[in-house]
Amino acid sequence: MQLQKARSLLKDCTMCPRECHADRLEDKRGYCGMSSTVFAARAALHMWEEPCISGEKGSGAVFFSGCGLRCCFCQNREIAIGDCGKEISIERLADIFLELEQKGAANLNLVTGAHYVPQILLALEDARRRGCMLPVVYNSSGYEKIETLQMLKGYVDVYLPDLKYLDQDLAKMFSHAPDYPEKAAAAIEEMVNQTGSCEFRADGYIKKGTIVRHLILPGHTRNSIRVLDYLHKTYGDKIYISIMNQYTPVFHQEKYPELNRKVTAREYQKVLDAAMEMGVENGFFQEGETAKESFIPAFDYEGI
């Protein structure tokens, strides 16, 4: 990507479905809470992704500050609202990519970077010129614009989006984004079109493809089953589905008291049983006590 093109995209920002038109070059901040300056809160080997992403080596995860979705229950709220993060240059971001490779990362894992796509592409090009060979994982809320995703074609090997809701009312309540179901479904279609069916290396790591995550919310198993049914009927075995029970109530909800507890074993089993009845075979599920705060990374600026 040319620097001039990157600057033009940031001058009148419409890179996410919010389409704020913020002039981020003049330090104006859109819904994501970020200007054109890149902020990140952690860059380290991350062991808690799906087995084919983290494996034994760990995924080289870069956690970017800010978010264009900002769910009220966000597990990474500390960085999503932009309060936590350290300013880094594009050159420093490229350095970070190379350092993660030197540490033995299985891949580069770009966590919530939609509002920084131009800067990320410039950093990836720099890192590649300097010898970085790691595959790239784009870790996303699913709330993406097709035009922005098309910029990533040829750079991203694996897409790792959420599909949080297919219920407009839930999307409006919890994410102030009633268009989330429509936008996320279209975004996932674009991701799958880019990557094709999932392919894996001999050592078990994913080589290319799309893994769609769904986080079950307490009290909303109907939404979860609807999401899984849509994904399976639409994509079959072309994608993998990751069914997550790790929801953690990180702060008290006054308006939505059902979110002040964890997902029960019964709720999780209900969703898993539905997935099996649908015939979902390509998938991941979580075992053990995942819904606790120790599974939320420490945003301590490690590696930044």
Instruction: Tell me the structural class.
Output: alpha/beta
User: What are the segments in which pLDDT stays under 50 over at least 5 consecutive residues?
Assistant: none
Largest sheet: 10 strands, mixed
Q: Give the overall average pLDDT.
A: 94
Head-to-tail CA distance between termini:
23 Å
List the quaternary state of the chains.
Answer: single chain
Would you count the extended β strands for me? 10
Shape type: globular
The helix/strand series, from N terminus to C terminus, equals HEHEHEHEHEHEHHEEHEHE
Number of helices: 10
Beta-strand percentage range: 15-25%
Give me the Rg, rounded: 18 Å
Helix content: 25-40%
How would you sum up this structure, described in words?
- There is one protein chain.
- By secondary structure, the protein is an alpha/beta fold.
- It contains 10 helices and 10 strands.
- It has helices at residues 3-11, 51-54, 77-80, 90-102, 117-129, 146-151, 168-175, 180-195, 221-235, 265-278; strands at 38-46, 59-64, 86-88, 108-111, 136-140, 158-161, 199-200, 206-215, 240-244, 283-285.
- Strands 1, 2, 3, 4, 5, 6, 7, 8, 9 and 10 form a 10-stranded mixed sheet that branches.
- The longest helix has 16 residues, at 180-195.
- The radius of gyration is 18 Å and the shape is globular.
- It starts with a helix and ends in a 19-residue tail after the last strand.
- The model has no long low-confidence stretch (mean pLDDT 94).
